[in-house]
Amino acid sequence: MSLILYIVCGVAALWLLTCFNYVPGKTSYVQEGLKGPKEKALGRGFHITLPWPITRTVGKANHKWRTDTGSVKVRSQDDAIFGLPYELQFRAIENPLSAVKAVYELTDPKRQMMAFVDNELPQFIRNKLLDDVYGDRSIVQGELQSKLKDEFDDYGYEVKLLIQDPILDENQEAGYNRKRTAQLLKDAASDEAEAAKIKEVGQARAESESKELQGQGVAKMRQAVANGMKESMQAIKDAAPELTDNQVMDFLLEINRLDTLTTVGSDGNLILMDLNKMSSNGSNLGDNVAAFAAYSQNQAKQTEKSSAVN
After folding, report:
1. Is residue 146 part of a domain?
2. What is the helix (H) or strand (E) element at residue 130, kind and residue range?
3. How many domains does the chain fold into?
4. pTM check: above 0.85
5. Residue 27 lies in a domain
6. Which of 44, 55, 74, 136 could form a disulfide with 49 if both were Cys (CB 3.0 to 4.6 A apart)?
7. Which residue range(s) make up the domain with 249?
8. Residue 23 within any structural domain of the chain
9. Which residues contact residue 7 at a Cβ distance below 8 angstroms, ignoring those fewer than 6 apart?
10. Which ranges constitute the DSSP H helices of 18-127?
């Protein structure tokens, strides 16, 4: 009798132990009761539930990232056929409601996800050039990643997709490299031509601005010369009112001629011929200078006499 009691007590103790559930980290337990599945999964830690078989664990949702690789043959828009490897990462969403979906909705999540990628990836590549697959791989990856999220979020899974470099055969790779090299040479030639054009435009603009500045300088110089001549003529007319404008102008021209001769003649290795002196105009200029000099001396004498009388 006592033996039977011990056995009963032992069985009862074991039965009561099924009320205690420990869930390790990065895992959720999905349980069912007499009326069907529980709405929420048990997260990590200790939980007390009704004993088995009133409540029982029917599945576990793994929240750790799992990885698998695959490859699919695709055709690009420029009729290049190649293999496109990819890496698939997935895990059950760490949420009590999503964990229940991850256990009940998919029987073989890895196989179903890879089948989805194998079906969708060729459709994306069909509208891309081979260069785009190399250069815009992240764009293709992002578009397909968005479709994976929309598809498998409802099943309680988070999915990431990493697309690798295309795998070409030797002939395709050699042809692609030749095409790529030709394109790079073409781009380089275009860039060099554009740089030469920019340089020529810059030089032309600089020359135009330089000519404009030179013109402004010449105009200012001529204006300064004209102003100087005007002031000189006025000073001479003030000093000798009886001289005509033509005489004053001739006098100034003669002074300029003499200054020029003095400047040029400062180099002893030059032989100068003053053709102006041989012309009648040169004689008139000389006479004007002499008349102005005589007038100046006469004025000076009159000034001295006036001073002596005073």
Report:
1. yes
2. helix 130-135
3. 3
4. no
5. no
6. 55
7. 241-309
8. no
9. none
10. 96-104, 109-125
